Every structure is written in structure tokens, then in C-alpha cells.
Amino acid sequence: MRELSTWLLICTCISPWVGLGVSIHGEGGGLGAGSFICLNNNILRIDCHWSAVELGQGPSPWLLFTSNHAVGSNHRCVFRASECTLVLPPEEVLVPSDNFTITFHRYVSGKEQVSLVDPQYLPRRHVKLDPPSDLQSNVSSDYCVLTWSVSPALEPLISMLSYELAFKRQGETWEQAQHRDHIFGVTWLRLEAIELDPGSSYEARLRVQMASPEDDLAEEQHYAGQWSDWSQPVCFPSPQTSARGPLLSPRGQPDGTLVAVPVFLLLTSLTCLLFKLSPRVKRSFYQNVPSPVAFFQSLYSVHNGDFQVRAQLTAGVEGESGLAYILTR
């Protein structure tokens, strides 16, 4: 233990350390070790980039990850050119409490040189997730539903996953794509037909990042990092034109002609229906009204119940009688 403490003290004095992504200097001859950026997928993989690539004889340089919690747990990340990838064993899947010491190892003039990179590397503060997988589309007459999959290891953190969608017409560049972000805690979303041009084919892709809620959480539950790479795109046709709303004009406002035609047809149908039903309505309305036949037998036998004919005849007779009386006078 004393030897380990002495070694760390010597490294600290000779090779001042700074955080990942900032230049550090190795021992001997003032040779620059460069800078390192290490990002993890929050499951089992850590990917590191080295800014100062050296092509020389001897073993390739490497980063050594030593757990500050699990005694005896250390893993090498050996560089191939400027990149190295460390895949942890399944039993050491990354958790929020993980904490590593990272040291850089290389051979200079036949001697191993060790530089301290970061005494407390917190994987949850350097997350770059894998792109969403199994992106699929399901198009109906009104909308298109996009679905994707989440790694089982990330399912407990699904509420902390934030997605961004990009979609465009086929033939356009991704710089022309439309975007939708602030998609939290789901594995599907819906594109309405009105968002898509009828008769066109589209492409969509997705990316994800860890996003800690803004409420009061313990420090060990806060994540930070960057967006994942984009997923493989999925292609799909836009919904049918009729799904865009026949009563809407291109500006999204009701079209007067399209509204008036159905209203006119409805009123015409109602008018025809009333004409057809009017005899039936009259019969049903008058079925309980008593008939006057029994009281006006002579009227019904001579004039078939037409009171107007009888009244006119009576008025005519009375008028002729009055005229004859006047003339006789």
C-alpha cells in the first residue's frame, strides 16, 4: 500500500493530471502524451480517442482502468492508432456508482512511462449511448407510427432517455430534414398525415442521449454526455391524400366550397324526404279527427263535401234575386 501511494505521489508531481479531453504530459524528455476523450455506452463498452498518435516500435500504448470500488478490477484499453475500445465483462456492467482511476501507459526508449489521466473517472458523466435499434414504421390512413427498441440493460433508465427525430423526403439531404425533439421515456411516436406531403416517400432516423430530470435527485443519479450517432434510417410512404382532411384548405382553414356542397346535399335530401312523408304525416295526424259525413249527408251526396261550391252557388242565387228585385222596382 505504501509503494502504491508513493508511486501515485511521484506521478502527480512529475506528470500533472487534468480531466479527460485536456492535454496531459508524460515523463521524460518533455514528450507530449496528448489528450484523451473516453465515452461509454452506459452498459459494457468504453471508447477512447487519443489526440497524439505515435507510430513507433514496441508495444502499443494503452489506458488502464482501475476500479476505485472493486478491489483487483482493472482493465486495459489498447490503442490501435488513435482509438481504443474496452469491453467490460458481463458481470461488471456499468452502474451509476462506478468510479475508475485511469492511467496512460507507453514505452519510451525501452522504458515504460506511466501518466495519470483521471483519478476519478465517473462513467455516468461521460455517456454516449448506442444509436436506437430496430427502427420501424407502420403507416395507416391518418398517420405513421415509428417504433424502436431499447437495450434491456437501459430499460430501468428509460425515463431518462431523450430522443431526437429527423425526417425528410427521399432525395433531399439530411440538412433539409425536419426535426422533432424533447421525446422522453417512450419507444414510439406518431407523425400525423398533415405533417407529410401526400404521394411522397420519406426517410426517418433517430438518436438518443441521457437526460437527467430537473427535479432534486441525488448526485449519483445525474447523467451527462452527448448525443448518440444517428440510427439506420427507415423508409415509408406518406399516408393517403384523403387522410389530410377533405374539409381543410392548403392553409389549414375550412374551404367554403367543400363545406357548402355537403350542406346543400343534406338540405336537398331532407326536403325530398319531407315531401315523400307528407301524405303519411297527414294521415297519421288526422286519423283521430271525426268525419263530418254523418252530419252533412246531402252535401256529401251532391258536392262530395265541397263547401266552397255550395257557398258560391248560394251566393249566386241570392245575388240574382236581389238584382231582379231592384229591376222590378
From TrEMBL:
Segments forming domain Fibronectin type-III = 131-239
CDD domains the UniProt entry points to:
FN3
Spans through the membrane = 256-275
Q: SUPFAM superfamilies given for it?
A: Fibronectin type III (SSF49265)
Any keyword Signal?
yes
Keyword terms of this UniProt record: Glycoprotein, Membrane, Receptor, Signal, Transmembrane, Transmembrane helix
Subcellular location field: Membrane
Q: How does it sit in the membrane?
A: Single-pass type I membrane protein
- Keyword Glycoprotein recorded: yes
What range does the record give for the signal peptide?
A: 1-19
- Recorded protein name is Fibronectin type-III domain-containing protein
Q: What is the originating organism of this protein?
A: Felis catus (Cat)
High-level lineage: Eukaryota, Metazoa, Chordata, Craniata, Vertebrata
